[in-house]
Design a protein that fits this description.
about 10% strand, single chain, 3 strands, alpha/beta, Rossmann fold, about 35% helix, about 110 residues
């Protein structure tokens, strides 16, 4: 998914400012940035003044879907039929169609509490 992201961003008019990951071993529990904890979301908010009401988590695992839920965000899960996010897409273009469709429709992007 990430291999050609720069070309896809340019053609689609979007921009991905950063990718976040947790360098902590999976064996170490309790790290605030280890998904599904929200530490990476909190860092992105600090780094980019993110509007959480218009933000989404895009991923391919249950941890990504759980991260979105824990942060109060919507999720799009890519290429993983075993994991159900709020939305599912076959590829990056599918992700863009889902998110743009909600933005155009004026749908509230934050999940109801």
């Amino acid at each position: 998914m990430l291999r050609d992201k720069d070309d896809r961003e340019k053609r689609g008019g979007g921009r991905i400012g950063a990718f976040y990951y947790c360098p902590t071993s999976q064996k170490r529990r309790g790290c605030p940035c280890r998904k599904p904890n929200t530490g990476m979301i909190e860092k992105a908010v600090r780094d980019f003044d993110v509007d959480l009401g218009r933000s989404w988590v895009v991923g391919d695992s249950q941890a990504d879907a759980d991260l979105a839920k824990n942060a109060g965000l919507r999720s799009v899960i890519v290429r993983n039929g075993a994991v159900k996010g709020d939305y599912n897409a076959d590829d990056f273009y599918g992700v863009l169609r889902i998110i743009r469709g909600h933005a155009r429709a004026g749908a509230p992007l934050r999940l109801p509490q």
